[in-house]
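Write out the 3D structure for:
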Amino acid sequence: MRPIVLAFIAILTLDSFKEREEWTNLLDKDLTHWENYLSYKHKVGYNGNVPVDESGMALEPIGYNKDKGQVFSVIEDKGELVLKISGEIYGCVFTKKEYENYHVKLKVRWGNQKYDPRKNKLKDSGILYHSIGEAGAEYWRTWMLSQEFQIMEGHMGDYWQQSTSAADIRAYLPEGKMNSIASTKQPFLSFGSGTTEGYCMRSENHESPDNSWTTLELICFEDKSLHIVNGHVVMVLKNSHYKKDAKEIPLTKGRIQLQSEAAEVFFKDIRIRSIEALPEAYVSLFK
């Protein structure tokens, strides 16, 4: 019996190893999986135009990989590596690689600092996925064309379009209408470019209390995606696309950006894995 037991243990060990190995850790002390972009220190009253100096001359954004002020840094907290984003300047870290059909998981919590133009507003950041093209494509002249998994106090998992992106969403419906994403009766509604709304609220608030770490998951497969907060699906999206020359173009792969948006924020346990199908547990949400 001993050889059989040893073989069984070996199989279990191999399976556990494979399970661990299918996740790729995207956070190390040197941010080797990431590049960065910084635009401007935006001020209260910004109107979407290129910022100007006191003489009225247009200012240039700081640009790619010029983070001299350490807006983005890796610190150690209780033996764990943590990505610290100061938020002082609008910008992002973005993956060097493009991803398609994947599952991202990370943990987030807020720091204490806030900056203009959001000193009197909720702390804000985000996961921007299917990011393509150059940075500075949207209103704040900072981020790439992408879909946004909102990270905001009390609003983890909201949707925002970036530039001309759009999607059909099953999530929150106002005025007392059904807001359970599990209901197959709730229709998908169009948000983003070409619609009257570029924003959609998550179905429920599942942010961790007392600013403890909140676990966020983003699952993307083909044109579909799911925003998951502490294990709860809060938004169901399909038909991811963007507009160019009045044409709808599928938006199903790209880089991943983490935003610096006037609030200090921390990320850890940033992991990604490829998937070959939408997880079975979530298939019914799209029917």
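The longest strand covers residues 102-114.
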